[in-house]
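User: Hello, can you help with two protein structures?

Assistant: Certainly.
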Amino acid sequence: MGEIEDKEKTGKNKKMGTGKTKKRGKRWALWIIAALFLVAALTGIYIYRLVFQPISLEETVYVYIKPGNDYKQVVEQLKEKGAIPSEEIFHLLAERMNYPNTVKSGRYAIEGGMTMPEVIRRLRSGNQTPVNLTFNNIRVFENLAGRLSQQLMVDSLSLLQSFRDNRQAEKFGFNPETFPAMFIPNSYEVYWNTSIDDLLARMKREYDRFWNETRKEKAKRQGLSPVEVSILASIVEEEATYSDEYPTVAGLYLNRLKRGMRLEADPTVKFAVGDFTLRRVLFRHLEVESPYNTYKHGGLPPGPIRVPSIKAIDGVLNPEEHNYLFMCAKEDLSGRHNFATTHAEHARNAAAYQRALNERGIY
């Protein structure tokens, strides 16, 4: 009996042990499942935060994508500008959103607070941020080409070749000499990757918009066409250092034109010689043979000697009414002018100026 009881007890103990082991196993399994769930949840939260974490930028950065640039080059730019919180997540998102196969050229703004999906959507959509294209104080087409190429995707040499293409000038109703008049210095909103043809067409539209009926009527009252206004304005701007003198100088040149007098404008001689740095125009300069030399040829030169500013153009359209026929730089070399109605008065002003140059050794 004792042996039987011991066997029964042993059997019971084995069953109880097995039951406890099973319970412990279930608990461990539950703990493992819970731990895995927690890890998955935390990983999911971490990834979610990375995906939708606002990008921290001190200021808006711009991504410039040229035709032919690939996805890797775009990512490199974004990394350099600190616009990717996680490169790995960005790649996963970009692949999922099919961006590597839909790269579009352009200039794109990436602002602080955007998320990576928003960045990808902007780049993928081709939703560019326009450039405020600005140019002023332009003398020659080389200057204009250089200024525009600094702000746009096009290179300066291609722009210059187009500016000097006679067919381009004729296409827009100008000739090679008058073509600079089409470019009105201002600020224009354009896309960074705009083509040269589109840019020129835009400049012509802005020219036509600028020359509204009011300005055309004012030009007509001065006996000038819009292009002639630009030609005279270019001389006025080169002659006057200060814009408040534009209407006075414009009135003087208009007086000379109406009386059939030659303009005798020193800036046109500098243009003809090809040296705007001349401080002193000498008699040998006045003898240069050029249709731009207004000491030798009457009327206006064939084209603008610079790209005139709006202020200079408006100075010609709204000239000061006076009887001045002569002008000379002031002897204090301030850049301002003495104006005269008679040649005798002008001669005195010119003599004072020449003495000032001699005293300072300016030749």
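That covers the first. Now for the second protein you mentioned:
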Amino acid sequence: MRRVSRITIAGVATAALAVTVSACGSSSTSSSSEGKSKGIGLAYDVGGKGDQSFNDAAYAGFEKAQKDLGVGGRDVEPQDNESDADKVQRLETLAKAGYNPIIGVGYSYAPAVKEAAAKYPKITFGIIDDNTIQAKNVADMVFHEEQSSYLAGVAAAKATKKNHIGFIGGVDIPLIHKFEAGFKQGAQSVNPKIKIESQYLTQTAQEGGFSSPDKGENAANGQIEAGADVVYAAAGLSGQGVIKAAADHKVWAIGVDSDQYKQDALAKYKSYILTSALKNVEGAVYDLSQSVIKDKKPLSGEIRGDLKSGGVGISESNPAFKNNADIQAVIKKAEEGIKNGTITVKTS
């Protein structure tokens, strides 16, 4: 996990505040105008900024909201092996500085958001990928990841030349089981006899399942050597290793959360990124920020993104995917079925 601090002092953030935040993770700050302290607080999940996937999708929403809404913001990196108390301290530091909303990126922030929200009832908190917090000042932003993964499975089954594909999950938890379930169901809807490799990198996030490209690369190498010629990873930063392995072997990779075909850090591999199963984390961060700062009507409660609402989807950036009429026909049919309810996607 990166330990490099990206700090640009702006607004009225004090040196003491910078030291406090640094104690529980590196951070960066920005402001639309000098002396303006109100803005958006963003606390990253395991892997931090630069994962080209989940966290970077949140950062994109954070950046866009600052620009469009004319406010500043502070985004804070996680620490290795941090505790819930570290997360609470991080969120409370942002709250004391006047940031509103404050968003925890990832389910692991649930205990910290619950505690911090109770202490700061006038501040709106958001959490992505968790819907267990019931508080008037908390927005639980969750998604039907199984639906976009179903489409990824359809794409994989149409693209494979060996009828043999693979799934790699970062951590063996219910959230990632949704990705696996949807992917398998989608692939089997095209070919019930397709062979699907499946592997989880670790049992817990602390073991590096979401933050170890080397683990992802090793797992992908194993699946490809076993015969898979399309691999799909739901593994955060570790997914970069999966994409590298796919490119090295000249087989297809399917990205996740962000459109990984467009990510600068993955540009040298993009010709091997068939598509990406998208999750609109960017939009979730933006919409919550707008509801607080511009609309003055903060969102709260469960906010769930699905295929019909545009909360999840599949990317078409790679011409090899977009211009393949055979794949597109099956994808469109699957999308219609999910939207109209004739296809119910499994979550486990």
